[in-house]
Amino acid sequence: MGNHQVVAFYIAISCIAFVISKIIISVLLYKRWKRKHLVYEDGFSGGKMVMFKSTAMQSLKSNVFLKKTLKLSNKDIIGSGGYGTVYKLMIDESTAFAVKRLNRGTAERDRGFERELEAMGDIKHRNIVTLHGYYTAPHYNLLIYELMPNGSLDAFLHGKGMNKKLLDWPSRYKIALGAARGISYLHHDCIPHIIHRDIKSSNILLDQNMEARVSDFGLATLMEPDKTHVSTFVAGTFGYLAPEYFDTGRATAKGDVYSFGVVLLELLTGKKPTDEEFIEEGTKLVTWVKTVVEHEREEHVVDRNLEDCPLEEINSAFNIATMCLESEPSKRPSMAEVVKLLEQLKTKKVVL
């Protein structure tokens, strides 16, 4: 009986020690979180603002930032989409942010907000838009991003009238490589890995140096390193989605590779994946380009603004896009491999 009491005593002590250690770890993690975040709770609006401590944010006061944020109106809108409205927030003449507003009310919107926070929380990469903080309120949520002064790739390629700007081949190549590096970072370097699920030209933003930044993680899915896919509802943008996604409902890294292939075709052809002429002919950008490239007539699909560009590089870029757009996912390269192929393209060592 004595031995049983000793064993029970040691088990009780071990359990208590385990609980205490967990409490200590939790306290330390919370203190670490507090050191990285500035929190301001506003009693009037019933909301809470959390700002991630960084060089860009260290001189800003949360309450002042919040007051300016709550004054945003329609005249400050710089973009909108299925997952929110984006505003330009001017703090002073030299400091500005992009604020994405997501109205609450549906479970999916709240999940989108949570996904962006989860995916963007600790990411620091030159080809991914930086999340500086967020605000939660009873009726809406806000995400605070760094402002990309040159807007989206979509606006550059497909803008109308005064909004359309010409991009030469060096600029397009730089954008393609930057976007590929950003997606590769999500797929291979983040733990858990991140599948974006909505790679498209409007979600590739351009900073003051025309460097590509991947944005909008409202559909992003986290995937543990030992997994190959995540089962989820089919979502994304028509024209960019991999064909197998409709059949399986499985989000994979190779689905993002396919979407990037479509973006690469946009850069090469200057056409939208759902261009009116394709709809009229009952086809789409991917099918049209594949047919022409198979007959080695790439020059017939290249954007007219790229006619004086090195044909060898253009042809290699078309081949990389075709690899990304393989109908069989296993035949597509990984994004890390796509980055290498694009880097080799400029050094004329690309092997396809």
UniProtKB/TrEMBL annotation:
SUPFAM superfamilies: Protein kinase-like (PK-like). Signal peptide: none annotated. InterPro entries: Kinase-like_dom_sf, Prot_kinase_dom, Protein_kinase_ATP_BS, Ser/Thr_kinase_AS. It comes from the Eukaryota. Keywords: ATP-binding, Kinase, Membrane, Nucleotide-binding, Phosphoprotein, Receptor, Serine/threonine-protein kinase, Transferase, Transmembrane, Transmembrane helix. It is a single-pass membrane protein. One of its GO terms (molecular function) is protein serine/threonine kinase activity. Residues 72-345 form the Protein kinase domain. Belongs to the protein kinase superfamily. ATP binds at residue 100. The chain crosses the membrane at residues 6-30. Its main location: membrane. It is found in: Membrane. One of its GO terms (cellular component) is membrane. This is Receptor-like serine/threonine-protein kinase.
